Amino acid sequence: MKFASLVRELALIRAPERQVELARLSHAQLGRLPEATIVTVVHGWFELKADGHPDADILREIEGRRKKEYGEESLPGDLTLESYARYRLRLEHPREEKAHDAIFVMQAVHRARQVLGATYREDTEGTTARGARPGAMAILAYAVLIGVIQGSLGFIAAFGSRAAPVSPGAALVVALVAVFLLLGAIGYAGGTVWGRPTLQAGLWGELAVLAIAEAQVAVSAKGSPGGLVPLLVPAAGAIAALYYLHRRHREFTAPLRS
Length: 258
Fold this sequence. Notes:
The chain is mainly alpha-helical. The chain has helices at about 5-15, 20-25, 25-30, 35-50, 55-70, 80-90, 100-120, 135-160, 170-190, 195-220, 230-255; strands at about 125-130, 130. Helices cover about 70% and strands about 0% of the residues. It contains eleven helices and two strands. The chain has two domains: about 5-120, no CATH class; about 130-250, no CATH class. The chain is elongated and about 80 Å long.
């Protein structure tokens, strides 16, 4: 749903008798309504929620952005999304008494979260209000599969087998990349601050390991491409995963459409 449509819908909760008037308002006029403040606050909350920050920290960050333009004010003691929205309405729309009503703010924030949660991820980049995204599930499956297999073989080659085709140091690097993949998958699924960056680091490490392996195979195979195929498949998976993470994060942090 577009910004103007959501603002208009929230305004109808507060003043249903103004339906005809609200339908005629321009985007600029809607942007000056109290409901526009609610939409902006909730969108900012979703934007920062993607990185796994606690709600109170998210709201303080949003307040920090406001302070740069409008100066410092005392935050409410019970800092929640609803209490912060009421605080912003009192500051920015002091004459709109109906907009300060606790029941209205609760309903408006709830509806804004419903609408924005259906468009963006609600708790993590891999989850929406409707459940896990297929792309995110595929990435997690890839990371866990590669991490478990590659990590097990890497640690065995590094510490347990003297007949391994690679040096213990190289095998340990391979195992550590697998650990990054597993930790990143856990953090990403749990919506932590470090989940996505760790998963991306693991995927880049996986690409580096595969590139080195492909170079070694190409040299030893003397021009035969058959030995490269088993390495190209996981490499393609890592590239697809990195693209997905980048695209979804950029989509999530993009401003609301007008």
